[in-house]
Design a protein that fits this description.
GMP Synthetase, Chain A, domain 3, 3-stranded mixed sheet, 6 helices, single chain, alpha/beta, about 140 residues
Length: about 140
């Protein structure tokens, strides 16, 4: 799936890669936050010692930065996005890919976020990178 990146997003992507020396798989902006998906095994390097690299990028951009580690396996990628996941199943229903995610009831607020904002972002990331159309929490 090809994604179109505007010039602002390309600027964010290049700045992050130049500061962290980590290749970015995908990047997008939502409000005052920029989300970076980095190569497998490189999230720690991207964050830097004591979060120095992320803090520096945030200072330059004047925005919050979130970093997630990519995985070509959709189930593993979901676990990277949502650390509190207990189990993940990818099913196909009516020609749509659906991720069924099992979590503890006490963690629903963490996954959903205020006004379901975090949940919407998770859906966007999964749609962009793994063509997952919907998420069901169990």
């Amino acid at each position: 799936m090809k994604r179109r990146l505007d010039t602002n997003t390309i600027r964010f992507l290049n700045l992050f890669e130049n500061i962290t020396n980590v290749r970015v798989v995908d990047c997008f902006e939502n409000g005052n936050t920029i989300y970076y998906i980095v190569e497998e095994g490189k999230a720690g390097l991207a964050v830097g010692k004591k979060g120095h690299s992320i803090k520096y990028v945030e200072k330059i951009l004047g925005k919050h930065v979130k970093v997630y580690e990519y995985s070509s396996d959709a189930q593993e990628f979901i676990k990277n996005l949502i650390p509190v996941v207990l189990d993940v199943k990818i099913i196909e229903e009516n020609e749509k890919n659906i991720a069924e995610i099992k979590i503890n009831k006490k963690d629903i607020g963490v996954v959903m976020g205020r006004n379901k904002e975090k949940f919407k972002i998770l859906k966007e990331i999964l749609k962009r990178l793994h063509n997952i159309d919907d998420i069901r929490l169990k």
